[in-house]
Amino acid sequence: MSGRLFGFPNPVNERSARWVATGVVVQAVLFLIVRQGWVLIPLAYGFTARVLTGPKLSPLGQLSTRVLTPAMKGEGRLVPGPPKRFAQGIGLVFSVGATIAWFAGAHTVAIVLIAGLTIAASLEAFVGFCLGCVIFGKLMRLGVIPESVCEECNDISRRLARPNV
Predict the structure, then answer these.
(1) For residue 120, what is the DSSP state?
(2) Beta strand 12-13 with 78-79: parallel, antiparallel or unpaired?
(3) DSSP 66
(4) Of 11, 91, 112, 128, which cross-links 78 as Cys (Cβ 3.0–4.6 Å)?
């Protein structure tokens, strides 16, 4: 990790991203079961920390990058960071939105937001499908996100040259 506090890693180890998503699923399902607003606070904090600093200030990010991913055999596949940060940003909107909704008394809104977050995080964690990354790619193709944000996203030859470990 670099010495800078703010920033997001590029590239990202896909295994670490999937471990983080697994942790998000656990937290989100816990909320859906217990229906207690306090469960949303660490979830929202985690997304805020990861969007601003990558794994540096995120307990879940630290656990995945320092313990869980290194414990696995092989190096894992490196993927571009900007789409993963975008996906974390979507999670931030959903988790903070759910937290605000819950404490404002809009419990159904909070439950729907966390259910959506659970689905997206489950796709990443268990299937390796990053919904936020797909949205990022579509927004790049539409010109909403400039190509300069993720040059590597446009260069398929770089991705094909990497081993799929």
Answers:
(1) H
(2) antiparallel
(3) I
(4) 11
